[in-house]
Predict the structure.
Amino acid sequence: MEVGQISQSSYHHGNLRRAVLDAALEAIGESGPSGWSLRELARRAGVSHAAPAHHFGDKTGVLTAVAAEGFALFADSLERAADDPYGAGVAYVRFAVDHRAYFEVMFRPELYRTDDPEAAVARDRAGAVLAESARKLAPGGGSERATTLAAWSVAHGFAGLWLNGALPESAEGNVEEVARSVLELVFRRDR
Amino acid sequence: MEVGQISQSSYHHGNLRRAVLDAALEAIGESGPSGWSLRELARRAGVSHAAPAHHFGDKTGVLTAVAAEGFALFADSLERAADDPYGAGVAYVRFAVDHRAYFEVMFRPELYRTDDPEAAVARDRAGAVLAESARKLAPGGGSERATTLAAWSVAHGFAGLWLNGALPESAEGNVEEVARSVLELVFRRDR
DNA sequence: CGGGTCATCTTGTCAATGACTAGATATGGT
DNA sequence: ACCATATCTAGTCATTGACAAGATGACCCG
């Protein structure tokens, strides 16, 4: 099962599933989550126009796989930073910036099958880390739910605004630096 | 605002531009910002398959018009609530919930022509209200920019999370009520 | 070695779509 | 009454997503 550069000219690709996913991520990065065609992915991977559908069923299947892989990577990132809620918030934004193609699909339910088992498992894993972080943020107290939502919202909102270029000139300079100064206000409130 | 039962069978529609826009908003509400075709809009409006293109140029043109109209309505909503920053935050979320179809297009630059004059004017108008509100939130102080971004992020993020159904069970019950409790934490910090 | 089995990939096809062209029809100004 | 122009229709083409049927070769068992 070597993944390698085997079979440049062979009938069987060797790792077409991976190649199509990579092509999809590239295409998403260039023109958004739906600015490409299955046939374009096939061309990028150098295979026939129907080959991608064999591995993913249909276009939605490709996006489902992207979302599933994205949530898995996302959960990994969050877990590495989960000691401190503020760190998790920074990791949230950093993931969105560093893995834009994944992020842009993950939170767009109309694009993929949200009930896909693999996607659901990964999403729940990420959700568990967020919930745990939130519990550390607001220990006890009636405002726990609100605090949780506020923290999640500020990270998600900043990431979204940055990704779609809505931030006027604020994103100039180091994104992470700006993100930190914003997140601090909510994650490290002098209550 | 029935534009008219005029000309049910006439060659000219009378207000096709409006009819296509309404059809687009309806379609977006049902299946997302790109889950429809120009020809479907034509069918909904009862005109030929090429009629919509005459008024909007192409599919991107329809989305551009939706975004422009959306930003105009958005600016109106914000202006009505601009006295108090917290009220503006609530209006922000309420607009997203009440005018979901508009909102889902407005903050997705890859879908439309962001440099469209009409869209740009409306967007700037909304931006000005937000900036003004933010100034009231954090009068002076070096953290003004961070506070502004945090407030914007929390409203935008909550709206986005609610719209794509990411909030676990928090959205159960009155959305506005939950939104208020979240926004309060950032907009009315007991500093 | 040899044959069978099956996932992988290709070729062929079809309806739907976006975009374009040319033409038909109404509207309003003069 | 005439005509310039905006509005809408009919026709066309390349591209696309989805599907069906067939070709290829990897792997297994003897």
Confidence is low (pLDDT under 50) at residues 1-8 of chain A. Residues 59-80 of chain A form the longest helix (22 residues). Chain A is about 65% helix and 0% strand. Chain A touches chain B at residues 31-32, 34-35, 107-111, 127, 143, 145-147, 149-150, 152-161, 164-168, 170, 178, 181-186, 189-191 (CB under 8 Å).
